Amino acid sequence: MKKIIFLLTIVCFSFSRFVYNNPGEGTYIQPSPQRSGDPAVGYHYLLNGDYLKSGIPFNYFRMVFAKKNSSYLQRDSLNRDIGYEYTAVKAGNGEIVVAPNCLQCHAQVFENKLIIGLGNSTVDFTGGEKLDPRTATMTENLLRKTDPKEYEAAEPFLKVVKAISAQLHTQTRGVNPADRLAGLLAAHRDPQTFIWNDKPMMEIPDQVIPSDVPAWWLMKRKHGIFYNGFGRGDFGRFLMASNLLTVNDTSESAEVDRHFNDVLAYLRTLEAPKYPYPISHLLARQGGVIYLQHCVKCHGNGDDYPNLLIPEETIGTDSFLYKSNYQNPQFVNWFNNSWFAKGDHPARLEPFNGYIAPPLDGIWITAPYFHNGSVPTLEAVLNSRLRPAHWTRDFDNLEYDYKKVGWKYQEADPSQGSGIYNTELPGYGNYGHYFGDQLSDHERSALLEYLKTL
Ligand code: HEC
Ligand code: HEC
Predict the structure, then answer these.
(1) Does residue 128 carry a pLDDT above 80?
(2) Which ligand 2 atom sits closest to the C-alpha of 369?
(3) 405, 377 in Cβ contact below 8 A?
């Protein structure tokens, strides 16, 4: 039996090589040169660095934001008592302020452990944030009267919160509005100088595009980043884009940019966490054969990753995200004419009508699935008949389902409020990617077992 499986594996593998090179399947993304750097230096900068140089004054932050989440990272001095998703930094005028950092969206506490690089699928942008335009205005007025130096340090951050935070609301908890955030920041900033303008200088469509944050450990395999695969050229330039939140002008960006070769080097060292429970190796081996027949041509096998963009007609998943780049090309044009696209390591955006087929390393832990997080379990990715139309998680008591592989969820009535994932909303669709539907139940459970090993 073992021998037969071995032989089958070889035959399928050769077959998959053949399909790989079939140009009809997808569009290959050419690699771009990247800067090299020091991972340890990048790690330190990611968690302590001043890529945002404005925020909430330190003492005010400690009063308003409860002290929590501070023990996950062993940071020292001012950051010792601050949650992992914030960093205390020195503003331009020497005042200490607290700014959000990348781990707001790119880390998650999973089974009581902080996993850096796991997309945060519990983030809540449905409204009711502590920092909305009203509180920002109140804070501004208070600081202006009581402490002009603190006011000066907080002003670049508070003015941005006032102008855009009300336009970032998502329909459900767990999805991320970062694409709209990028669009809004661009609309308020001059592309060449990054100087802020209170009035937006280009029109950004009203609808928020929901996305599920991709795991950082996948990036090292990709030749184009983001779901659309449209991030090309120097990746460091995209990694530093949060700098647009508070930057005063491009001289500050140039200083921040000098650190992002190291941050990139750190992100490239990240590995997917291993599945923590026993795996049936017999079943997984059978699943491996099915994977080679049906999946490898797009998703690849470890280092052997094909870097393919899969067109709309083949993938069929919700098209809202990639279509937005064609219906409203303002953001892409802004970027490609901006400071980011200049200098000796430029970046650029190349939209595509479809999505990149992502590597599947650590896929067991990155639920919910697809670019918009519309499918709660891997079982339902493989069998579209099982995908719930309206579902919710108990965010106060999140539980992982190691059998279906994904989040435990309940089906729910969409009128029940903002906790509900309603797949009928634009951008939130759970259709498409029907590649597992044709398999038998046994084949799907073997494949699921195999996916746990990645
Ligand atoms: C507000 C949430 C948020 C913050 C803060 C944030 N990101 Fe992201 N990031 C996202 C989302 C959402 C995506 C996926 C967007 C897409 O592909 O359309 C993303 C994509 C990425 C990617 C591409 C990954 C891939 O494989 O395609 C990298 C790398 C990245 N972010 C790095 C960073 C770094 C470094 C920081 C801090 C300087 C940061 N991000 C801050 C939400 C965020
Ligand atoms: C023709 C190319 C193609 C084939 C064949 C294919 N996929 Fe995919 N797959 C994609 C693309 C593209 C996406 C991203 C879709 C999206 O996010 O909207 C994806 C997404 C996924 C995801 C979700 C990833 C995530 O991080 O949310 C999983 C899991 C997955 N595929 C597994 C499989 C398995 C298992 C097979 C084999 C039965 C398979 N795929 C076959 C192209 C393909």
Answers:
(1) no
(2) 27
(3) yes
Arithmetic mean of pLDDT, 113-142: 91
Q: With beta carbons less than 8 A apart as the criterion, state whether 424 and 389 touch.
A: yes
In the structure encoding, which two tokens stand for residue 415, read together? 């009128």
* Cis bond before residue 31 (omega within 30° of 0): no
pLDDT category at 44 given cuts 50, 70, 90 is very high
* Terminal Cα-to-Cα distance of the chain (whole angstroms): 23
Question: Ligand 1: which residue has its CA nearest to atom 43?
Answer: 105
Q: How far apart are CA 434 and CA 51, in angstroms?
A: 41
Q: Is the CB of 390 under 6 A from ligand 2?
A: no
Contacts of 76 (CB under 8 A, 6+ apart): none
- What pLDDT score does 416 carry? 77
* Residues in the chain, total: 454
Binding site membership of 447 for ligand 2 (Cβ less than 6 Å): yes
Binding site membership of 357 for ligand 2 (Cβ less than 6 Å):
yes
Q: Looking at the CA of 215, which ligand is closest?
A: 1
In a mutational test of the pocket of ligand 2, which residue from 374, 435, 437, 440 has the highest number of ligand atoms less than 8 Å from its CB? Answer: 435
Q: Could you tell me the two tokens for 44?
A: 């330190």
What pLDDT was estimated at residue 414? Answer: 85
Q: Which atom of ligand 2 is nearest to the CA of 214?
A: 26
Comparing 45-54, 76-85, 89-98, the range with the smallest average pLDDT is 76-85
286-326 per-position pLDDT tens digit? 999 999 999 999 999 999 999 999 999 999 999 999 999 99
Residue 13 has pLDDT above 90, yes or no: no
Looking at ligand 1, which residue's alpha carbon is closest to its atom 37? Answer: 102
Kindly tell me the sign of the dihedral angle through the C-alpha atoms of 333, 335, 339, 340. negative
Asked if residue 18 has pLDDT above 50, the reply is no
Quote the tokens at residue 409.
């969820």
- How many whole angstroms from 242 Cα to the centroid of ligand 1? 9
